[in-house]
Each structure stands twice: as structure tokens, then as C-alpha cells.
Amino acid sequence: MTETAVRKIIHVDMDAFYASVEQRDDPALRGRPVAVGYPAKRGVVAAASYEAREFGVRSAMPSTTAMRKCPDLVFTPPRFEVYKAVSRQIHAVFADYTPLIEPLSLDEAYLDVTENLRGLATASETAQDIRRRILDETGLTASAGISYNKFLAKLASDQMKPDGQFVVPPGRGEAFAETLPVTRFHGVGPVTAKRMHDLGIHTGADLKAQTLEFLQRHFGSSGRWYYDIARGIDHRPVRPDRERKSSGSETTFAEDLTDPVGIEAGVKAMAADVWAWCAQTGVRGRTVTVKVKWADFRQATRSRSVQGRVDDLETLSAVALDLVRSLYPPRMGVRLVGVTLSNLDRSPAPSAGEPQLALG
Q1: What pLDDT, on a 0 to 100 scale, did the predictor assign at position 352?
Q2: Contact indicator for 202, 183 with CB cutoff of 8 Å
Q3: Looking at domain 246-345, which of 3.30.1490.100, 3.40.50.720, 3.20.20.70, 3.10.100.10 is its CATH number?
């Protein structure tokens, strides 16, 4: 890559966004382990504060499991309308620095700041200024990764969390990737990581040592991606205006599940992720699809189209749960679940307002 072709990409990721908003708005929650969600028997953690994460509490975890891990855990109901409003504030800050913004969710986005609109000396200084403004205007902290491509910028944003930033400059990406465990790589979930570990691949350096043919033989079409990222290669541009055909979210469980409570907790958390995007964009959809990946890596999908459209999270969750229950009893352990909303409708949502998130 020539110097003139080097992109300047920032990945901004809010720190424990939903939980941090709750702690900001309720001083009694500050410094305490907080879970956004409901402590119901079949509830699920939508987000966890850093204090809760120290006990092993994570998003998509059944509420009962979270309470066992952290008996002092405080549950607070989600307020998606508030999170959406804060997200709009954050994106307004981004727009002062670049028109090239690719949102990934309410709380994270890629920014291409190759064109220096603000006259700041470096992309690192730009990221610092963005984080300062977010804190000033919302009272919330953000972390940032700065590099010459999206993969490295996303890796870098995790390096100094919370409330920090990290730079991977041109010429250093390959060496940076070599030092990291493959579990840190985007696209390598717990199950894929285990497969890599079984093959003796534990770090980026181990991954880089494999041939493309070897990786494609063991990981199929994903082999090319793993081959490239081990070398710090990612040519994907920041796409601010890409019209999405669907909105989906998926999670890979730390261990294979057969218990319906854990499986359905994952499905409800993924439905909440999808609805967060719907709430932010105003887009709705008509077709719900649930994906399940079994322990042997085979996949099953179930889809259903509703009359009219899916206009609230309650409907989205109910359809998704009904679809996953059509696969019971599980033929074997479940490694991954995903929820996707497609057949999108961009006409205005009803004026009655968005219903509250119901995860319990």
C-alpha cells in the first residue's frame, strides 16, 4: 500500500453502553454490578456493567445463571428509546468529523477519517477529540481503535477498554495480529477457536503459519478470511450508504447447549439486538428467520413471514422462539443461534411509539 492509499479508520465502541446509560441516569447504580434485563426465570441479560463482568456475567446469559454468578447483581429494565436517543447524539458527533460512518449497532461504528475535515494532526488526535466530545455531551465513555483497515481498528478498540484508545500504524498490523490469541479475532467465535486450538493454532502467528489450502480445507470459505487477517489484511471499505436487505444477529455459546432455557435466552438476546437496529433506523420487516448451528457444525434454519409486518420486539421474540422450539428436542448440542429480520419495510413506523423491550 502506498502512503497516499493508506486509509485512516477509527472504530468507536461505547463502554458497556446500555448498562452505562443506566448508571449515568441513576447514581445509586454507580459502582454496582448492573444487568440490563429482567430477573425472571426465563429472562436474559441484554447488557452487563463492567462491575458485573468481573463476576463472569455476560450478555445473552440466562438471568438465573447471572444471579448465581453474582448474587448482588442489580437488574434494571431496558429503555431502548433512551439508548436510541443517546445513539443519535453520538452519531451527530461522528458527523462533524466525516460523512463516512458505518454503524454496526446503537453503540459502535466505523469511521473513515482519511479526509481530514477538522484539520487535526493525526487520526489518533481525531479519535481523542471524538471521545472527549462524546463524554462532554452524553456523560459516557467510549473506546477507540485506530488503524489502516477495519479489522485492525476493531481489534485495537478492545486493547485499552474501557475509556481508552490504541493505534496500529501502517506497517505494524501484521506484527500486532501475530501477538494476539485467535479468540480476539473478529469472526473467530468460541467454537471456531476450539477447532483452531485442536489444530495447534492458538495465536495470530500460529494462524499465519498455515497455508491457504490448509485453512480452506479445515474452515471452508472462511479460510481465505483467516489467511488474510493473520497478515493484517482487510480491504473492506467503510460503507455509509449500503442499503441492508436484512438485519441479523447471532451468538456462539461458550459450550454446546441442550437446555431450552439457555438456548432461548440466546434467541431472545439476538432478537433484542435486531430490534435495537430497527428502533434506531425505523425499519421494520415481515420475515423472521432463526438459525441454529449444531455441535457437528451442521445448520438448521426456520423462517416465517407475518401478516403486515413485525412492529415490536414482543412479536419478533415470540416468532423467533416459536421457530427455535420447532427444532426441539435438540438433535444434539447447540453451538450457535441467530435471529434475522428480512423482507424489510422502510415506510414510517406507527405513530403510537415503540413498545418497551420485554426480555422476561
Answers
A1: 43
A2: no
A3: 3.30.1490.100
